[in-house]
Amino acid sequence: MSAEAVIKVDGVAKKYCRNLKRSMLYGVSDIARNSLGFSSRSHRLRPAEFWALDDISFEVRPGETFGVIGRNGSGKTTLLRLLNGIFWPDKGKITIRGRTGALIAVGTGFHPLLTGRENIYVNGAILGMSRREIDGFYDAIVEFADIGDFLESPVKYYSSGMFVRLGFSVMMFCQPEIMLIDEVLSVGDLSFQNKCLKRLKVLREGGEAVVFVSHNLDHVLYLTDRCMVLDKGQCVTIDKPMEAIGRYEQMIYGQQKDKALETNFRLRRSTREVSFSAIRILNSNGDVTSEVQSGEEFTIEVEMDSTRIIEQPNFAIAILNDANVQCIWNVSRENGLVLESLPPKSRLRVTLKGPKLAKGFYQINFALRDASSLETIERFYNLTSFVVNSPGVSRGILKCDCDWELIAKE
């Protein structure tokens, strides 16, 4: 280990088994082999096993906040559990120098039948504090947690936010040299989040090292000094926060692009009086694509066959992002397309005039109604899908050019 590092992870790997019975059998076999002086062969994969982490290496120095980001199931929590000594690596070596405080899951280290006050002492002892130390910080812990009269209630009645308040408060005052934090700040309310972030800043300035796992990319961007991107248990990159987040979003974008090519027509409510022979996304050059650039004009083209005359057809499209938030809504009659009837064979083209959608995955919902009777003929959820690409880091739903101005008042 280098003289400065308080955490060194060298070629670490951890495997799990997808089958419970096999996992128990492997555990008994490993214990038996170890007790007889044989290797458990933990570096090999056996049937139904997989690498949750594979060949992970990094160092963290005093005063440094090291971020870890990745999709669900990428190995972030497993990494923190290895750092905290809950699990042992199957390959590689972890070296920790200093007292460690961890907040990995809501309610970790709490006994549900004990009160908040009693759990302060239990959790403090788990974190390595003596009773005298806990007594010295007790009032500060209670003030920081700010859970009011619930301090004397059993914690099984606590909300997830109250669990986080109490657990984070104890960890903040156990004076750890290393803090491991896993996606818990998102549970607390905004004022508590701000209080925690300020406290983390003070501790960083005091020389404490932090490993910070979060899906909140803004927290990662402004709180961390370096950031690692995990994907399927492997390290994609370790870089400055802005570069790492950009790499992560580009990775997600690539996966979303592949998703856009999957079969559509996932959910349909229909009278079966209209059939679709083709659905296409056309870019500004008229080429069929599954990818458009933010701010670029593109066209949705649908070919239809109808089995009966539909009076006064009215079309509607909605574009939703991957969080199922509706970003764009448009209706044909409101945009001047007024028809007496739908031809037996037709091609509908809807051209969007340069929407500045944020980078990401989008799906198109579609509806056809008879305006004369208000009857819904077709309704498709995820008629087709596409991805939007744009330079830099994207946030929100829509991008737009803005003029910023700050005026000092007299």
Describe this structure in words.
The chain is α/β, with parallel strands linked by helices. The chain folds into 2 domains: 7-257, P-loop containing nucleotide triphosphate hydrolases (Rossmann fold, 3-Layer(aba) Sandwich), CATH 3.40.50.300; 267-389, Coagulation Factor XIII, Chain A, domain 1 (Distorted Sandwich). 26% of the residues lie in helices and 33% in strands. It contains 8 helices and 18 strands. The strands form 4 sheets. Strands 5-6-7-3-8-9 form a 6-stranded mixed sheet, sandwiched between helices. Strands 10, 12, 14, 15, 17 and 18 form a 6-stranded mixed sheet that branches. Helix 3 crosses helix 4 (131-145), helix 3 (116-126) crosses helix 5 and helix 4 (131-145) crosses helix 5. The longest helix is centred in the middle third of the chain and has 20 residues, at 241-260. The termini are far apart. The model is unreliable at 263-267 (pLDDT under 50).
Taken together, the total number of domains comes to: 2
- Per DSSP, the total helix count is 8
The CATH superfamily title of the largest domain = P-loop containing nucleotide triphosphate hydrolases
Number of DSSP strand runs: 18
**Main sheet overview:** 6 strands, mixed
CATH topology of the largest domain: Rossmann fold
Q: Based on CA inertia axes, which overall geometry fits? A: elongated
How large, in whole angstroms, is the Cα Rg? Answer: 28 Å
